[in-house]
Amino acid sequence: MTLHHVNINAEESSIPTVSFALYLVARLSPYEWRDLHPCKRTRAELENQFTFFNSLWFLIGNIMQQGTDLNPTAPSTRMISCLWSFFTLIIVSSYTANLAAFLTVQRMQTPIENAEDLASQTKIAYGFQRGGSTENFFRESKIATYERMWNYISANQADVTAASSTEGINRVLKGNYAFLMESTTSEYNIMRNCELTSIGGLLDSKGYGFGVPQNSPYRDILSDTILKLQDEGVIHKYYNKWWKEAANLKCDQEDKRKDIAAELGFANIGGIFVILAGGLILSTIVAAVEFSIKIRNRKGRQISIREEMQRYFRFAIFNVSASKRRASIFIKDVPLLSPNDDDHDRDRDLDQIRHQ
Questions:
Q1: pLDDT confidence band for 281 (50 / 70 / 90)
Q2: Beta partners for 129?
Q3: How far is CA 51 from CA 41, 45, 94, 303, 320, in A?
Q4: What is the mean pLDDT of the chain?
Q5: Exposure check for the chain: N or C terminus, fewer CB within 10 A?
Q6: Tens digits of per-residue pLDDT, 101-127?
Q7: Are residues 130 and 250 in the same domain?
Q8: Is 96 domain-assigned?
Q9: Residue 287 to residue 146: CA distance in whole angstroms
Q10: Residue 212: predicted pLDDT
Q11: Domain check: are 27 and 41 in the same one?
């Protein structure tokens, strides 16, 4: 996931919020009410194309980089359209860039995942400590992969083997070298150096124990005590204490990847939401200014500006299901459009308007 859940919730909420804002501003702005059939002179009605669902469809089409047949004409609705396009551009671009980085990090895997991969390549040298148990294991192994590794190491023994585990680890830190060693020692060093890591599973499984003389009476006592401590979790407790807690170092590869391609938090792209909210408020103010200019410049006004505003806002807010209104909305005593009105009533109202 490349987006923080807070951003996802904010983006999901922004779609219906901006849709409602566009719908409301379109109803408030007089310039979004237009005659969609100008050739029919007998119809005294205006229609608004931005219903709530049309507004929602308009925004979704913008997100998908696809246009719709809805074209805002008022400055206020065009402002919302441009603002939403800018918002979508920033969100999509940020998500795409972060997703590319995330997928790149996901593919940043070690080219060698197991002993077979190590034996099949020649770029990275590998070896072990001379004279140790690991050398004995490869010398005596009958597995084809390990035999091939032993042949390589024995042929280049002076160059790939180390006198001690410390020398081998130092060669690993310099690069292009893999050091084969006991898992316990390997794990101990990895917990103390984040530049080290282990790959693949165990090549062999061996346990540790105390050496005592043959037929020693202490053999059974030590074995029983070790099994008891293991069952009670004491050994695991001291393992955590001296291996993990004493290291006081966290080397989580997943954490490293998260640092490289972290989720986009609200702190990263929260500014665009602030711009979006501010733009919606500004567009509402612009719609109010448009309405004010329209009614002040209206000729033949028969009612006061205050009454006109109340009449218009009452229709825009409370008649939410109506996508049409009469062109005579500003004329006194002329009712608003009703869905039950027929063409004859509309023509009659138009004649009344012409005679006034």
A1: very high
A2: 162
A3: 24, 16, 31, 29, 9
A4: 76
A5: N
A6: 766 655 555 567 888 888 888 888 999
A7: yes
A8: yes
A9: 78
A10: 87
A11: yes
Q: Residue 323: give the domain boundaries.
A: 5-105+265-355
pLDDT tens for each residue of 307-322: 666 666 666 665 555 5
Q: Are 83 and 276 in contact (CB under 8 A)?
A: yes
290 is in an annotated binding site: no
Q: Are residues 241 and 125 part of one domain?
A: yes
CA–CA distances in Å: residue 173 to residues 46, 168, 342: 77, 9, 87
CA distance 32 to 137: 84
Query: Does 123 share its domain with 16?
Result: no
Overall average pLDDT of the 166-186 stretch: 89
pLDDT score of 330 more than 50: no
Are 144 and 64 contained in the same domain? no
Helix (H, G, I), strand (E, B) or coil at 244: helix
Backbone phi and psi for residue 252, each to the nearest 5 degrees, phi listed first: -95, 115
254 and 281 together in one domain = no
110 belongs to an annotated ligand binding site: no
328 against 84, higher pLDDT = 84
> How is 142-207 classified by DSSP, letter by letter?
--HHHHHHHHHHHHTHHHH-BSSHHHHHHHHHHSSEEEE--HHHHHHHHTT-TT----SS-S----
Query: If you search the block for the tokens 């309405």, which residue do you land on?
Result: 291
Predicted confidence at residue 320, as pLDDT, reads 52
243 located within any domain: yes
Helices (H), the chain: 5-28, 52-63, 75-106, 115-119, 133-140, 144-155, 157-160, 165-174, 183-190, 218-231, 234-239, 253-260, 266-296, 305-318, 343-355
User: Using one digit for the tens of pLDDT, what is the confidence trace for 204-236?
Assistant: 777 777 888 988 888 889 989 988 988 888 888
- Domain edge (last residue) among 239, 260, 281: 260
- Predicted TM-score (pTM) above 0.70: no
Burial of 343 (0-12, 13-18, 19+ CB in 10 A): exposed
**Total domains present in the chain:** 2
Q: Which residues 6+ apart lie within 8 Å of 284 measured at CB?
A: 21, 24, 25, 28, 76
Residue 119 shares a structural domain with residue 250: yes
pLDDT of residue 150: 92
Please indicate if the annotation marks 133 as binding a ligand: yes
One domain for residues 11 and 69: yes
